[in-house]
Amino acid sequence: MKTSIIVCTYNEEETIFNVVASCCKHNPDAEIIVVDDGSTDGTESVLETLAIHYKFDYLKLPENHGKSYAMAYGAEYASNEILLFINANLINLRKEHFKMLLSPIINQQADMVVGNPDSFTVDYSLNPYKTVMGEKAILKSDFLPIIKDVKEILFGVEAFITIYFQALGKKVAYKSLSGLEKKNTRSEGYTIQKPSSTNKEIANALISNIDLITKRIQNNIQHSQNYTQSTISSVQLQLNKYMKHLKEQIVKVETA
After folding, report:
1. E strands, 144-233, where?
2. Could you point out which of 83, 109, 122, 233 has its C-alpha 20 to 30 Å from the C-alpha of 38?
């Protein structure tokens, strides 16, 4: 199976060069797609320079739509079986990171792989952000049925994708990527770091949007296969647990 690597960027001129260069250098057989979601900084100029040295497809959106829209836009353009979504604010992205993200999909050991820096993902069982962030590898055939929802959900899209997969009984693997770092950014919808005032804004937006996410997950399950009510109820329980974690993080921010 071949891979399409999708890098969604918005005002990441400081890191985009090395991220895209790493994608190209370490994946010579992959299709590299950069979706510029209406950047207003020097991102386009950096990518023009990079295009002299590496081959990739540059998709420039005239205005900012948000990460979810950019992800869907890149996926629609992609031509290969595996989609690998890479954030544009990464530092020290190495060859082994790509292998860790892609091997479980290629070897049919997982339906989706989520990866984060090992310094951040110390304990996934305690990390409430495990479903809302991270590099993601996924089969395009699994992504296409929900691509319309992904394009339209502004906040909580990564939670939507992961919880939807779990509800369908698909296997989600989590990987700690040694040495990988993320540059702090305030580009909302493009990254979520440890608890901060920015996270509070994002978490509040997720909470206000949870009814929409819940409804779309339930509708997709009912339309795709004949799942029982117990399956849908388990989705609701998982969403409630997820939102409880987010609310706890908001309290930590407010009392810090």
Report:
1. 172-177, 181-182
2. 83
Strand-pair partners of 35: 8, 59
Written as six digits, the tokens of 122 are 């110390």
Phi, psi of 9 (to 5 degrees): -130, 145
Nearest to residue 188, comparing CAs of 229, 117, 132, 141? 132
Beta bridge partner(s), residue 87: 8
Nearest to 192 by CA among 144, 112, 121, 137: 121
Could you tell me which of 126, 119, 129 has the C-alpha nearest to residue 195?
Answer: 129
Contact 86, 20 (CB under 8 A): no
Other C-beta atoms closer than 10 Å to the C-beta of 25 total: 13
Rg, the chain, Cα only: 17
State how beta strands 57-61 and 90-91 pair. unpaired
pLDDT tens sequence for the chain (256 residues): 999 999 999 999 999 999 999 999 999 999 999 999 999 999 999 999 999 999 999 999 999 999 999 999 999 999 999 999 999 999 999 999 999 999 999 999 999 999 988 876 444 444 444 555 789 999 999 999 889 888 887 767 777 787 778 767 789 999 999 999 988 754 444 443 344 444 555 555 555 556 656 666 666 666 655 555 555 566 666 666 666 666 666 666 566 5
The residues that bridge with 3 in the sheet, in sequence order, are 82
Which residue from 237, 211, 235 is spatially nearest to 153, judged by alpha carbons?
211
Residue labelled with tokens 């339930």:
218
